[in-house]
Write a structure and sequence with these properties.
Blueprint: H1 7-13, H2 17-28, E1 44-46, E2 51-53, E3 60-61, H3 76-88, H4 95-102, H5 106-137
Antiparallel strand pairs: 1-2, 2-3
Helix pairs in contact: 3-5, 4-5
The chain binds zinc ion (ZN).
Length: about 140
């Protein structure tokens, strides 16, 4: 996947819902999609509904299930450029900038930033933990 270089490119890139779903799926399940409820692997993808159906528990789930995006009416088309901004702006990004650049309210932008920061911190911790584990095993 070619990463967008500018915010404009990021917004254009993530204007396709399927691209967003694929990008989030790669982040969430780098080894392949797993059921959001029972963690079984290789669910069926229901192309028209953009949801998966689990082979094991038979439940259907979207990319948002059990994620930081759950319970949010904000579309992934806005979440992903916000994530892009957060990761790429070395001097930090404010909720005012996100609100202005992505056309969401400042309150929504603040909420998005909170969740994205938490998720990034959790990911950092997880990778540091994995690195420490690998170190111990050596
Ligand atoms: Zn399941």
């Amino acid at each position: 996947m070619e990463s967008p270089k500018t915010l404009l490119e990021a917004i254009q890139y993530f204007s396709d819902e399927q691209v967003c779903i694929d990008a989030v799926a790669m982040m969430r399940w780098p080894q392949g999609v797993r059921c959001g409820y029972c963690d079984a692997d290789k669910p069926y993808y229901l192309e028209t509904q953009k949801r998966w159906k689990c082979r094991s528990c038979r439940k259907q789930f979207s990319i948002k299930v059990n994620s930081i995006f759950e319970d949010s009416p904000i579309s992934l088309k806005k979440w992903l450029p916000a994530l892009w901004l957060l990761v790429n702006c070395k001097n930090g990004v404010s909720s005012y900038e996100i609100a202005r650049d992505l056309g969401v309210t400042q309150k929504s932008a603040w909420f998005m930033l909170q969740r994205l920061r938490l998720a990034l911190r959790a990911r950092d911790l997880a990778s540091r933990w994995a690195a420490a584990k690998a170190e111990q095993l050596r």
